[in-house]
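Morning!

As promised:
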Amino acid sequence: MKKQDIPKFREVLLSHYATHKRDLPWRDEGRTPYQIWLSEIMLQQTTVATVVDYYTRFLAQFPTVEDLANASEDDVFHLWQGLGYYSRARNLHKCAKLLVAEYGGAFPREEGELLKLPGIGPYTAAAVASMAFHVPATVVDGNVERVISRLYKTETALPAAKLELTALAKKLSDPAHPAAYSNAIMDFGATVCTPKKPLCLTCPLQPFCASSTPEVALDYPKKIAKTKKPERVGEVFVITDKNGDLLLNKRPNTGLLGGLYALPSRGWDKQDDPLPPRLGYTDAGTITHVFTHFKLTLEVCTATIAGTHPQGQGHAPDNLPPIPTLMRKVLLAAKKQP
DNA sequence: TAGGCGTGGTT
DNA sequence: TAACCAAGCCT
């Protein structure tokens, strides 16, 4: 795209956004920086459809950053359970506490200051600066990378292309309309310039685009081929005591499913959990679960003990601490096969 | 810097 | 069904 075409490009993009604006809760008039920040954290690698309900529930319980800062970590994880990437919840909580303790409960307005906060990287800093404070800042997410790469037919493969794409994105973004432009270009990627079925034939940006047909567009952005997921297998144990309580352990704060609670298991994770001695188990079948970097198959073993679980490790099934979806699957399998 | 880090929907 | 994808961040 020529430099003199950029104003027209912005005009067309913003005009398309104005007429195709999706009604999303974090986009409502009068949303606070806290609310916009929360939505951006939840939307990291997570679909809009999944986020909406979590977002609504979260704000109902924690309407302000002070409410979040004062919450217990378990309460935060409870609202996050099932959403995945749990370090986001930990950093969200940490960030809220930091804001209240050292920033007077208010977000900084500048991209560079936002970037210093836990859980806020280049994308989220630009998103909050532009959307919450109308400060010129260029968002570069997966959508933007795809749109820009197709507009210019960039040949460098991701993730190495990130720098090049960011430089191009900065030239295109509209400093006069930071919030609208950020939303517009990402919406455009999500609804028109989509990964699998780009709508090139009716695309309003076609006059500016070096691809301009689906056949060409689908080749961009170039990507490094991903390696196949390894498979892991193990056993997981559903152990009920005489009160009907389940045995759960809190996982370490870092690493996989960090900070959540889990049924004892063996064979697949970094460490095997200790088990009650000399126990006979009933086979309740297997469950499978796919993580980002491996596939897991667990044999579900159930047992009942005559005594009670150690203090703090027994939990009533109707009042469980935050557990990941993986463990929900295990409990469902155990319930089906009594 | 490349890999760790969840989950659910789509193709 | 296996692979891909979704408003990335951290180490």
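Residues 21 and 187 of chain A are 8 Å apart (CA to CA).

Hope this helps with the figure draft.
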